[in-house]
Amino acid sequence: MTAVLFTCAGQRVDIVDAFNRAGATTVATDVNALAPALYAAHHRALVPAIHDEDYLPALRRLVEEHDVRVVVPLTDLDHVVLAEARDELGALLLLPDEEIVARLGDKYLAHVLFEERGIDSPPTWLPNAVPDDAPFPLLVKARQGFGSRHIYRAEDPAQLGFFLGYTPVDSIVQVCLAGEEFSVDVFCDLEGRCLNAIPRTMIESKGGESIKGMTIRDQRLIDVARDVAEKLKLVGPANIQCFREADGTHYVTDINPRFGGGFPLPLAAGGRYPELALALARGEQPEPRLGDFREGIVMTRFFSELSLIQNGDGTLKPLAPAE
């Protein structure tokens, strides 16, 4: 079986389980022994923090120990570190090149990148460059980060000045779009060719993560996502977030080059993204299957839990269910 190494596994039990069902040997890593996804994998390992000098060597040791063929980061936290060390990992890394990763992780640099590649993006400025005629409302957004933290809506110049002084992080200012928001989960091959794109509605989000949504067959969204993915030469999974305005224009606001928070939806819709990842790891060249998914799949998420007990060697293991 093809071995897959997940970094920053965190709570993404859904993704690890999906790869298990696809026939992978799964190896999950995290810095926190209480990360639930560790216990969904065939093998688990605690590793140093991502900026520790032994982080990459620890991953390389796991790659060698388990004959890992592909590395799949599950959060944004270590994208740049991994992309910079792509040739040191000893396995295929499902991330685009270092420049794209770095720029997508910075909302201002991402906006500039989108403009350079001919991708529509809402007007965006650094705080000291907001024009006097900028149309309100405006959003103050963290330049870096995730989970919709530090986002404030300013209705007038006074509020804009207040929020720029109030926010504790480096920020951008962006036009507040009035259209409907969508997410499109794409998967691309190693040359940046889009293999599939599955749009979904954003019925409800919490903490920046989709908890309710529905897959839709919208050819315009599929075309936009494919165009964006191929212009940026994305590799592996990515989540493209955009707004459709009243005039039909689509403005891209964020791209996460990883499996999105709404991963269960494209999975349930038949996207078979874990199988595509394993095929790339085996050196295969899957053909695009754009539009090959089931529409009308509705996702509603809920809390779950995992009970652990001491393993006798200082580690933890899942508590066996009561008979």
Features:
323 residues; alpha+beta; D-amino Acid Aminotransferase, Chain A, domain 1; Dna Ligase, domain 1; five-stranded parallel sheet; four-stranded antiparallel sheet; 18 strands; globular
Give the SSE layout.
Elements (H helix, E strand, L loop, with lengths): L2 E5 L5 H9 L3 E6 L12 E4 L8 H12 L1 E6 L5 H6 L7 E2 L4 H7 L2 H10 L7 E2 L12 E5 L8 E4 L2 H10 L4 E5 L4 E9 L5 E8 L2 E3 L2 E6 L4 H14 L3 E9 L5 E7 L7 H5 L4 H9 L16 E3 L7 E3 L5 E3 L5
Parallel strand pairs: 1-2, 1-4, 2-3, 4-5
Antiparallel strand pairs: 6-9, 7-8, 7-9, 10-11, 10-14, 12-13, 13-16, 14-15, 17-18
Commentary on this structure:
The structure is a single chain. The strands form five sheets. A five-stranded parallel β-sheet has the order 3-2-1-4-5, sandwiched between helices. It has three domains: 91 residues, Rossmann fold (3-Layer(aba) Sandwich); 175 residues, 2-Layer Sandwich (D-amino Acid Aminotransferase, Chain A, domain 1), CATH 3.30.470; 53 residues, Dna Ligase, domain 1 (2-Layer Sandwich). The protein has nine helices and 18 strands. The protein starts with a strand and ends in a 5-residue tail after the last strand. It is globular and about 65 Å long. Helices cover 25% and strands 28% of the residues. It is of the alpha+beta class. The longest helix has 14 residues. The mean pLDDT is 96. The relative contact order is 0.14. A hairpin with a 2-residue loop joins β12 and β13.
